[in-house]
Amino acid sequence: MSTAVVRWIAGPVLRATASGPFALREAVRIGDAALLGEIVRIDGDEIVAQVYEDTTGLRPGSLVEGDGLPLAIRLGPGLLGRIFDGLLRPLPGADLAFVKPGVRRASAGSFAFTPRIAPGDVVRGGMVIGEAMAQGGIVQRILAPPDAAGEAIAVAAAGEHADDAVIAAVRDDEGRERPLAMTHLWPVRVPRPVAARLGSRVPLVTGQRILDSLFPVARGGRAAIPGGFGTGKTVLLEALAKGCDADVIVYLGCGERGNEMAGVLDEFPQLADARTGRPLMERTVIIANTSNMPVAAREASIYSAVTVAEYFRDQGLHVALMADSTSRWAEALREVSGRFGELPGEGGYPAYLSSRLADFYERAAAVEPLAGGTGSVTIIGAISPPSGDFSEPVTSHTKRFVKAFWALDVKRAQARFYPAINPLQSYAEDAREFAPWWASEGNGNWLALRRRFLTLLDEEARLERMARIIGKDAMPVRQQLTLVCAGLVNDAFLRQSAFSDNDRVCAPARQAAMMRILDRFFDLAEDALARGVHPSDIAQMKCVRLLQRLGEDVADGDLARFGALDESLEREFAALAAAEEPDAARR
């Protein structure tokens, strides 16, 4: 074990004189309290380390001891349903109390273990060696560490075992024996290996119409949610965590205000999973690193979160990682970089900001795990650009690495239009790839409908600028009808209440039905306009009010009502056209 003596301290950064060899990114323990740190620079016999805990009271002369291993977290069946800090140390409770200094990781208890190998079997890295019953009766696969391989020489019998107890042993080709537990360590900055990375033509279903139908993200893809203060980033991320179709949710509160995270920790345990009826928390891992926690730990928290997501991915599960927010992580990176004395780049951020963002987002993927099957990690990161400026470094660099960009708009949020996603600033680069999936969901015309909705919204923005100058009544009737139809897209389809029992989550089948009936309304409205019906008469039709309340009034299991509503549209437009014909003849 190498040691060093502290000679200089500045906040979370220290310099020490080493008396033995250290490795870059090696984990270290500092002082009498064994504070956790990591080597970030080596210059001869001087080492520079960042400390992930409060350094108050640390002084020159304190001892630094190396672990001989990189900074790592322990992965196992005791993760689901629990709350951790940024270094995956369990928090004492939902009150965001701090972890005691020097605490590494406590055992999660015992689990019912069922072996899936026997003595004499060949064990490969990442393969399934058993199963364990986690909280709520969820069965989890127990994986051999990716770097473990050999012949099984001992396997524990089925029954209750502590998660850190030895449940198997393997002997490699050189005769070395290695004990295996239900848990194992993995370095947070090293992506876990996979058999193959796969393409994905299946979207992550979020339950939010504007995202699923207009700006979808692939299962195993990457999305960003930039937005200024008060635009609803945290609420939207919580809605996605509650409503998306991922098997496991990893929710990371990175540098957010403590009261917001306290609300998340209070609400999640009370939520019911719409798919199973059981508590949603049973398939959720929450990592909380609030703004008043040590700043260096915030920098490491996103790597801890994505490593946890990869662990569940390797079990053949689909994981959604919600990171709120990467701007606070970048601010921590900037603060620690300043302590190192590094030259600042754009916006004061370190020059390696872009590469660190790439390291994080590129770990999202749909893959074939070492254990076989398929799994995925979808990363959705919130960004908090100062003053809502999307040209600032974190947002502009993030756009290079994501395929879906969901821009939140201050004006929409101020108008209480939620989710406040601006459809003219948002995009999904691989939306066309999901057309076959939508066809399998009964919406074979999805691309054409999506194009029509976006075209209407684009024309609305242009026409509203004109209307502010000359007034809507002075505009040609076709342009007035465009404004009516675009307004219906906004009110009936894009607006979605997170507090409505029916509308907080919208299944793909209901989204498809809503798109089709709105498209039918647009066609009938254009026919009526050609027959001389004025757009103001179309806007006052009874069916318009019914369409505006589709999300609130029609539940996912009540799609038969769309057929009746379609017939009602036909009758009302026919009656409107019939009433217009005598007036046209008199004129």
Write a short abstract of this structure.
The chain is of the alpha+beta class and 587 residues long. The protein contains 16 helices and 26 strands. Strands 8, 18, 19, 20, 21, 22, 23, 24, 25 and 26 form a ten-stranded mixed beta sheet that branches. A six-stranded antiparallel barrel has the order 1-2-5-4-3-6.
Mind explaining what this structure looks like?
The structure is a single chain. Helix 4 (295-313) crosses helix 5 (326-340), helix 10 (446-470) packs across helix 12 (508-530) and helix 12 packs parallel to helix 16 (560-586). The chain is globular. A hairpin with a 4-residue loop joins strand 3 and strand 4. It has 16 helices and 26 strands. Strands 8, 18, 19, 20, 21, 22, 23, 24, 25 and 26 form a 10-stranded mixed sheet that branches. With 587 residues, it is α+β, with helices and mostly antiparallel strands.
How would you classify the helix and strand content by structural class? Answer: alpha+beta
Share in β-strands: 15-25%
Shape: globular
Low-confidence stretches: none
As a percent range, the share of helical residues equals: 25-40%
Largest sheet: 10 strands, mixed
Computed CA radius of gyration, to the nearest angstrom: 28 Å
- Average pLDDT works out at 91
Number of helical segments with 4 or more residues: 16
Terminal CA distance reads: 98 Å
DSSP strand tally: 26
